[in-house]
Sequence to fold (302 residues):
Amino acid sequence: MPHAFARYAWGVLAFNLAVVLWGAYVRATGSGAGCGNHWPLCNGEVTPHSPTAQTVIEFTHRATSGPIDVALVALLLVWAFRTFPRRHPVRLGATLSMVFLLTEAMIGAALVLLGHVEKNASITRAYSLSTHLINTLTLLACLTLTAWWASGKPAIHPRGRAAWLAGICLVVVALLGVSGAIAALGDTLFPALSLASGLAQDWDPSANVFLRLRGLHPLIAAGAGAWLLFYAVSSAGRRPDVRGHAWTLVACLGAQILAGVVNLLLLAPIWMQMVHLLLADLLWISLVLLCASVLAVRAESA
Fold:
């Protein structure tokens, strides 16, 4: 039974990755207002009649991130409490997954009701987008840890230097993700006709905040990448038992940097934005697993 639960938990994580990618497709295609400013109804209807392409895109995202995802995580939660004993970390992971899934839905509803969709370029949209991104990363982390613990891994006990380093890494990647999300929105709102014109837009002192962060994002990514490389290599050097997770993080980091360069050179086409986001999420998940393995094994050895 625990093995079946673990496979299901990894499957729920994969489904949520797909939901995140589809959410990015909604933003990139400007379909966030495809159901109007109605929520949870779509243009005042339970199911849209004679929908446009944008309505289909937005309604699909609402269905997968709403009732379908809630049902999947609810089953995860009930199954966790029926399979694992009291105080087992899987129970905690499943509970937190449900909590952050519900807050994810509420933030998504707020984006629609506040009009932070389509061509809205207000500074308040940057704040709501950042909140949404942080919640999404937290949800993915909770789902990842639930599946990891269900696979037989021990609980983590954050303490000492290792906990501080892991925490710094997670914060750095979260901030990098925020800058990347805002940069991607800048690509959607202010598409560049050429690389030269795009750079000129980004560094114009009077440019919109989305464009200015789009210009800073590669610099932030370079600094964050250097730190993550240091963390992965130093962890592998000190702890041979976590080398697999460390080198996975390095591989994801290299792929993400390459995708970022290609995304920049191709002027951020939608398909490349999706690839870039997928690699960013895989980088986040690999970092969560590395941090968890470092902290868990330290607790075991202690």
Q: What stands out?
A: The two ends are 30 Å apart (CA to CA). The CA atoms of residues 82 and 270 lie 42 Å apart. The chain has two domains: 1-153, 154-302.
